[in-house]
Structure formats: structure tokens, C-alpha cells
Specification:
294 residues, 434 Repressor (Amino-terminal Domain), elongated
Length: 294
Amino acid sequence: MDVTTGGQGPTTNRRRLRLLLRQLRLERGLSLEDVRREMDWSLSKMTRIENGSVSISVNDLRALLDFYQVRDADRVRSLLDLARLARRRHWAAEYREFVSPSYMDFLGYEDDSRRISQYHPFLIPGLLQTESYARLVVTTGPQFRVDNAAADARVQLRLARQGRVFSRAKRCDVRIVLDERALKSVENTDLMIEQIEQILSRLPDLDLVVLPGDTAADSVLVGPFSLHEFESEVDPDVVYLDSLPDDVALVEDPAVVAGYKASFEDLYRQAARDDDSRRRLQDIATSLREQPPA
């Protein structure tokens, strides 16, 4: 299989390359220290290349492939092409100073997913947030309470992210289990009515189910997560765990990812679907409108 096919972004291509390079090293029975000594690189450089925190230059890759005795011209060309693709500009590069490297990778994997499955027991997921709700969440974190520029950038990043995921040109399947408790966690009535109306407007574009607040009481123990599944078999599925304040942690272990897949399916089965979900959202919005002014 040509590892450069499929139109993936730099994050996914960088992961493809690091997995392939690690496989080549292990096939030759080499340790990171063996490679470091031969290439005259630092151990930290080798570690960062194999964990994907940095991209490898084309010249360094040529030298590394020569050391690994990769002689097949087509394979060498494919790997060099992958390195070039991995060094392309990230679509959210202008926001890099305002978010963590792990969140930048999260955005990249999200961009390349064929299916995204999300659950959050306390908050409206970022893909569904209105600008007002997003600003409330962002400015709740202590580091952004006094940094208006950073808060504005992170809000705009959320809106840009939504535009890409729900773009007709980059269509992927989106499944969200929306915990009913998240619809009642903010006391600002007008803000939540606007938020529910936006969710209702998104329903044609995603598979959304509502988990009633009186069921699956232990679902809160699962914690918020986002499952990313990919089209190609060379791209293993990943999970991202929400880590406040507004950060994420990557999970790649296949057994753990499988566990989160099972958890999502369990939550999904327990939730109200289709017309029942829409009706629950509409009922909650109606009850909010009928509340007397504070």
C-alpha cells in the first residue's frame, strides 16, 4: 500500500512516518541508542522523531533510511514524499501560540477522521458550542481570565474547527452522545436557549443522541473523550481525553482505544435517539423560556 495516498494532513502523515520508522528500526534489532550513535544525533532528537513531536527533514530521512538499509527505490521515494507531506503547514498554525502541541495534533487527527465519536458528561462538546458558550468555557480557565487576546483566539479556533468538521467538502461522520446534565450546567438561561437552538440546527449534519439525566448514573465515571477513526488501515484509531483547562491527552494503545469504543457504544445504546432526542432538546428549551426572569 502507498502510505502517501488519501489526502491526509500533516499530523496524520507525521504519525504514519514515525510508526514506519520505528518498525524499520525494530526489524533491524536496533535500539534508539544504536541509531543515535551511528547518526551522531542526540537521543532527544531520535526520541522526538519517533514520538512524532518533531518532523524529520528530507536529508535526515535519506541518511536514516540508508543506515536502515532501505534500498527499494519506490519505498524510499514513498517515505520521502511522506516526510514532505508531514512538514506542510498545519491548518491551525496561526493559533499555535494559544494552544498546546497535543491540542494541535488533536485538531489534525480530527481533520483526517472518517468518523468522530464524542461524549462529555458536563459540558457541551466544542463541536457544538455557540460563540457565547465557548467564550464562557474559555474564560473560566484562570490563565485566560485576564488575557483577552488568547481567549479571543481560542474561541475563534473553536468556530474554525466546527467549520472544517461540518464542511460539505470534508464530510465525515460525527456521532455525539450529549449528556442531559450538560444542558443544565450553566445558569444563564438566554445563553443555554441559544446553545440548544444551535444544536437543533446541527442535527441534519450529525448523529446526536441525548443521554437522559436519570439513566446511566455511572456514565460520569467514563469522563469526556473523543474517538477518532480513520479510513486507511495504516492509520490506527486514537482517543483523546479532555484534560482541563481546555487541553487533551492522546491514547494510542489499541486495547485502551477498544475499551473506549465499547464505552461509547454502551452510552450510545442507552441514549434517546432521533425524534426522542430532538423532543428532549425542545422540551428543555421550552422549560428555560418559561422560567421567570432572575
